[in-house]
Write a structure and sequence with these properties.
four-stranded antiparallel sheet; about 210 residues; mainly beta
Length: about 210
Protein backbone atom coordinates (compact mmCIF):
# COMPACT_ATOMS: atom_id res chain seq x y z
CA UNK A 1 0.00 0.00 0.00
CA UNK A 2 1.40 3.38 -1.01
CA UNK A 3 0.88 6.24 1.39
CA UNK A 4 -0.53 9.40 -0.12
CA UNK A 5 0.87 12.80 0.62
CA UNK A 6 -1.32 15.83 0.56
CA UNK A 7 0.14 19.14 -0.67
CA UNK A 8 -1.06 22.71 -0.93
CA UNK A 9 -1.06 24.14 -4.44
CA UNK A 10 2.25 25.68 -5.52
CA UNK A 11 2.76 29.39 -4.87
CA UNK A 12 4.66 31.64 -7.31
CA UNK A 13 7.35 33.67 -5.62
CA UNK A 14 9.45 35.04 -8.57
CA UNK A 15 8.91 35.50 -12.29
CA UNK A 16 11.82 35.65 -14.77
CA UNK A 17 11.35 36.01 -18.54
CA UNK A 18 10.84 32.57 -19.95
CA UNK A 19 10.37 30.73 -16.66
CA UNK A 20 8.63 30.78 -13.32
CA UNK A 21 10.20 29.79 -9.97
CA UNK A 22 7.78 28.10 -7.60
CA UNK A 23 8.02 27.17 -3.91
CA UNK A 24 6.20 24.07 -2.75
CA UNK A 25 4.60 24.36 0.72
CA UNK A 26 4.95 21.66 3.36
CA UNK A 27 2.54 18.86 4.08
CA UNK A 28 -0.66 19.71 5.88
CA UNK A 29 -0.51 17.64 9.10
CA UNK A 30 -3.39 15.18 9.34
CA UNK A 31 -3.05 14.83 13.14
CA UNK A 32 -1.28 16.86 15.75
CA UNK A 33 1.39 14.92 17.60
CA UNK A 34 1.24 15.17 21.39
CA UNK A 35 3.92 14.40 23.95
CA UNK A 36 2.67 12.97 27.25
CA UNK A 37 3.51 15.08 30.27
CA UNK A 38 6.38 13.72 32.29
CA UNK A 39 5.40 12.20 35.63
CA UNK A 40 6.16 14.44 38.59
CA UNK A 41 9.28 13.27 40.42
CA UNK A 42 8.79 12.07 43.99
CA UNK A 43 9.08 14.80 46.57
CA UNK A 44 12.14 14.29 48.75
CA UNK A 45 11.20 13.80 52.38
CA UNK A 46 7.82 12.16 51.82
CA UNK A 47 7.30 9.84 54.79
CA UNK A 48 6.03 6.27 54.73
CA UNK A 49 5.59 5.21 58.34
CA UNK A 50 4.46 1.70 59.25
CA UNK A 51 3.88 2.57 62.89
CA UNK A 52 5.46 3.30 66.24
CA UNK A 53 5.80 0.62 68.88
CA UNK A 54 7.68 -0.88 71.79
CA UNK A 55 10.22 -3.61 71.10
CA UNK A 56 11.81 -5.89 73.69
CA UNK A 57 14.18 -8.84 73.19
CA UNK A 58 11.91 -11.19 75.16
CA UNK A 59 8.42 -10.13 74.06
CA UNK A 60 8.42 -12.13 70.82
CA UNK A 61 9.53 -15.44 72.30
CA UNK A 62 6.90 -17.88 71.08
CA UNK A 63 5.31 -20.13 72.04
CA UNK A 64 4.90 -18.88 75.59
CA UNK A 65 2.29 -20.88 77.56
CA UNK A 66 2.05 -18.25 80.30
CA UNK A 67 0.33 -15.60 78.19
CA UNK A 68 -3.28 -14.65 77.70
CA UNK A 69 -4.91 -12.04 75.49
CA UNK A 70 -8.16 -10.14 75.21
CA UNK A 71 -9.79 -8.25 72.36
CA UNK A 72 -10.68 -4.80 73.64
CA UNK A 73 -13.85 -2.89 72.66
CA UNK A 74 -11.81 -0.45 70.55
CA UNK A 75 -10.36 -3.27 68.41
CA UNK A 76 -6.97 -3.36 70.08
CA UNK A 77 -5.51 -6.35 71.94
CA UNK A 78 -4.33 -6.58 75.52
CA UNK A 79 -1.62 -9.20 76.07
CA UNK A 80 -0.32 -10.02 79.53
CA UNK A 81 1.19 -12.75 81.66
CA UNK A 82 -1.53 -15.20 82.70
CA UNK A 83 -1.32 -14.06 86.34
CA UNK A 84 -0.13 -10.53 85.42
CA UNK A 85 3.29 -11.53 86.72
CA UNK A 86 6.10 -9.48 85.18
CA UNK A 87 4.28 -8.46 82.00
CA UNK A 88 1.28 -6.93 83.73
CA UNK A 89 -0.26 -5.48 80.57
CA UNK A 90 0.56 -4.54 76.99
CA UNK A 91 -1.76 -2.89 74.45
CA UNK A 92 -1.31 -3.71 70.77
CA UNK A 93 -2.73 -2.13 67.62
CA UNK A 94 -3.21 -3.77 64.22
CA UNK A 95 -3.31 -7.33 62.93
CA UNK A 96 -1.60 -9.98 65.09
CA UNK A 97 1.48 -11.69 63.70
CA UNK A 98 1.16 -14.89 65.73
CA UNK A 99 -1.95 -16.53 67.23
CA UNK A 100 -1.54 -19.93 68.83
CA UNK A 101 -3.89 -22.93 68.70
CA UNK A 102 -5.69 -21.68 71.80
CA UNK A 103 -6.41 -18.36 70.05
CA UNK A 104 -4.00 -16.48 72.30
CA UNK A 105 -2.45 -13.49 70.54
CA UNK A 106 1.29 -13.35 71.20
CA UNK A 107 3.34 -10.18 71.62
CA UNK A 108 5.22 -10.54 68.35
CA UNK A 109 5.75 -7.14 66.67
CA UNK A 110 5.56 -6.63 62.92
CA UNK A 111 4.96 -3.96 60.26
CA UNK A 112 1.23 -4.07 61.01
CA UNK A 113 1.21 -4.95 64.71
CA UNK A 114 2.61 -2.60 67.34
CA UNK A 115 2.73 -2.39 71.12
CA UNK A 116 1.73 1.14 72.13
CA UNK A 117 1.37 0.67 75.90
CA UNK A 118 3.56 -1.44 78.15
CA UNK A 119 3.22 -2.06 81.89
CA UNK A 120 5.83 -4.20 83.62
CA UNK A 121 6.87 -4.97 87.17
CA UNK A 122 10.34 -3.58 87.87
CA UNK A 123 10.88 -5.13 91.33
CA UNK A 124 14.46 -6.40 91.59
CA UNK A 125 13.51 -10.10 91.70
CA UNK A 126 11.39 -9.85 88.54
CA UNK A 127 13.59 -10.43 85.48
CA UNK A 128 10.90 -11.03 82.81
CA UNK A 129 10.16 -9.42 80.42
CA UNK A 130 13.44 -7.61 80.99
CA UNK A 131 14.88 -4.23 81.86
CA UNK A 132 15.55 -2.80 78.39
CA UNK A 133 12.91 -1.59 75.93
CA UNK A 134 13.04 0.27 72.64
CA UNK A 135 10.43 2.57 71.22
CA UNK A 136 10.89 2.55 67.45
CA UNK A 137 9.45 4.51 64.53
CA UNK A 138 9.16 1.98 61.69
CA UNK A 139 8.90 2.88 58.01
CA UNK A 140 10.63 3.00 54.64
CA UNK A 141 11.02 6.79 54.59
CA UNK A 142 11.16 9.23 57.48
CA UNK A 143 12.50 12.75 57.84
CA UNK A 144 14.01 14.48 60.87
CA UNK A 145 12.60 11.97 63.35
CA UNK A 146 12.50 13.25 66.91
CA UNK A 147 10.97 12.38 70.26
CA UNK A 148 9.31 14.31 73.03
CA UNK A 149 8.85 12.52 76.36
CA UNK A 150 8.05 13.15 79.99
CA UNK A 151 7.82 11.19 83.21
CA UNK A 152 4.88 11.85 85.48
CA UNK A 153 7.37 11.80 88.36
CA UNK A 154 10.84 12.80 87.19
CA UNK A 155 14.04 13.22 89.16
CA UNK A 156 16.23 16.31 88.87
CA UNK A 157 17.11 14.96 85.41
CA UNK A 158 13.96 15.04 83.21
CA UNK A 159 15.19 11.93 81.37
CA UNK A 160 15.23 9.91 84.61
CA UNK A 161 12.18 8.93 86.65
CA UNK A 162 12.05 9.11 90.43
CA UNK A 163 12.79 5.36 90.61
CA UNK A 164 15.78 5.65 88.28
CA UNK A 165 14.34 4.53 84.93
CA UNK A 166 16.28 6.36 82.19
CA UNK A 167 15.42 7.39 78.61
CA UNK A 168 17.89 8.09 75.78
CA UNK A 169 16.80 8.97 72.22
CA UNK A 170 18.72 8.75 68.95
CA UNK A 171 17.13 9.03 65.52
CA UNK A 172 14.04 6.87 65.26
CA UNK A 173 14.82 4.99 68.51
CA UNK A 174 13.85 5.71 72.10
CA UNK A 175 15.93 3.58 74.48
CA UNK A 176 14.50 2.88 77.93
CA UNK A 177 16.59 1.30 80.68
CA UNK A 178 14.66 0.23 83.76
CA UNK A 179 16.15 0.29 87.23
CA UNK A 180 15.63 -2.72 89.50
CA UNK A 181 13.36 -1.29 92.19
CA UNK A 182 12.95 -2.19 95.85
CA UNK A 183 9.91 -3.32 97.81
CA UNK A 184 9.61 -0.45 100.25
CA UNK A 185 6.79 1.38 98.44
CA UNK A 186 4.02 0.74 95.93
CA UNK A 187 5.02 3.09 93.11
CA UNK A 188 4.30 3.44 89.40
CA UNK A 189 6.37 5.68 87.12
CA UNK A 190 4.65 6.51 83.83
CA UNK A 191 6.46 7.60 80.69
CA UNK A 192 4.63 9.26 77.78
CA UNK A 193 6.67 9.50 74.57
CA UNK A 194 5.58 11.12 71.30
CA UNK A 195 7.35 10.46 67.99
CA UNK A 196 7.56 13.03 65.18
CA UNK A 197 8.62 12.85 61.54
CA UNK A 198 8.74 15.92 59.29
CA UNK A 199 7.41 17.89 62.25
CA UNK A 200 4.22 15.79 62.43
CA UNK A 201 3.36 13.47 65.30
CA UNK A 202 3.28 9.90 63.99
CA UNK A 203 2.72 7.97 67.22
CA UNK A 204 2.58 7.90 70.99
CA UNK A 205 3.93 5.30 73.40
CA UNK A 206 3.22 4.79 77.10
CA UNK A 207 5.31 2.85 79.60
CA UNK A 208 4.49 2.11 83.23
CA UNK A 209 7.14 0.73 85.54
CA UNK A 210 5.51 -0.73 88.65
CA UNK A 211 7.31 -1.38 91.93
CA UNK A 212 5.32 -3.54 94.35
CA UNK A 213 5.70 -3.29 98.11
CA UNK A 214 6.29 -6.49 100.04
Amino acid sequence: MVARRRFFPSTKVQTVPGRTVELELQLRPMAKATTPAAAAPPVPGDDEIFGVGWLAPTLDESPNPNLRSELLPDGRYEIMDYDRWGLESSIWEGTPVYVDVDFVVHPVPGPGFHCVELQVETTYYMTWPGRTYFGVVQGTTMTNVSWEFEWDFASSDPAVSRQGHRVVTYGNVLHLRCEATGTGSELTDTLTARAFSSGVQVGQLIFRGVAHAS
